[in-house]
Amino acid sequence: SGRGKSGGKARAKAKSRSTRARLQFPVGRVHRLLRRGHFAERVAAAAPAYLTAVLEYLRAEILDLASDVARESKKTRINPRPVMLAIRNDEQLNKLLDSVTIAQGGVLPYTQPAVPAARRDAQAAVA
Questions:
Q1: What pLDDT is stored for residue 18 in this prediction?
Q2: Which of 53, 77, 83, 85 is the most exposed place for a label (fewest CB within 10 A)?
Q3: Does 104 score more than 80 pLDDT?
Q4: Pick from 94, 99, 15: nearest CA to 61
Q5: What is the count of structural domains for the chain?
Q6: Cα-based distances in Å from 98 to 16, 19, 94, 101
Q7: Which residues span the domain enclosing 57?
């Protein structure tokens, strides 16, 4: 029949922006959140892809450090505790997430510094 396109190339299967950028996190959702968050009047097309890549890198870095902490304490599962310890023991991540409270993360272990050497020597001389 004479209707529609005859022949020609079929349309390519749709690819998400996350797939095109080879990212796991959703670029479309980040774009929507940037627009609805009123951070700026307009949002560039590449901005959500860059932001998503940064978030994905941070996720990978934190999980890598947390898995090391969990392995050191002979645990097979990453809980909030190793995540918190990993963040607080890393100088840059600690600075970035300084005001963040991690639920069920506990506190950093702290041991009192040993008695100063001068006092220790004086006590040994008296005894």
A1: 93
A2: 77
A3: yes
A4: 94
A5: 1
A6: 34, 33, 5, 8
A7: 17-107
